[in-house]
Amino acid sequence: MRWDSLFDDLEAQLNEQSQAQLREEVAENIRIERATAELLPTLVRFSGHEIALRVSGGTELRAKLGPCAADYICLETEHSQWVIRCSAIQTLALPPGKVPIADQHGAGRSVKFSSVLRGLLRDRARCQIFSRDGISLAEGTLAQVARDFLMILVHPRDEYARSQQVSTQLLIPLEAIGWVEAKHLS
User: Fold this and answer.
1) Origin, by domain of life (predicted)?
2) Are residues 30 and 56 in the same domain?
3) In this structure, is the dihedral angle defined by the CA atoms of residues 36, 34, 27 and 100, taken in order, positive or negative?
């Protein structure tokens, strides 16, 4: 009888030690996962959800998160689109609740910043370009997006980019750009 009690007690202690060791391993794995997390895979999980963010210069935006890449993110509302360099982002407010499961289809897209801007060029959207410091650099219609610069035709806000309306052509290095806002014409 005493032996049975002793062995039951030893078995319970061993079981409790195994449970404690498993809890410690799980906690350590969670710490490692959180410490090695990166911005892009985290943001990709929120694609399609509304987020709020603050960019350089204190501008605050609230819109639906679109495609993300290593150096920029895209936001969209009914009337505007933004292509924002990650280096211009100061804070991101993600939706409350559980973190969505990662979507492997959209993770880590390697579309270049200049390629996204070429999409705005094709749309002939009215764009406002901001520096990495949040200062407005130009407003008008994109005329060219090259490998490392863009050219924008500056013209009055309510006019089309016709030669008689264009006041100047500005060449802006892509490295100087913090974000671009494109307005949909209604």
Assistant:
1) Bacteria
2) no
3) negative
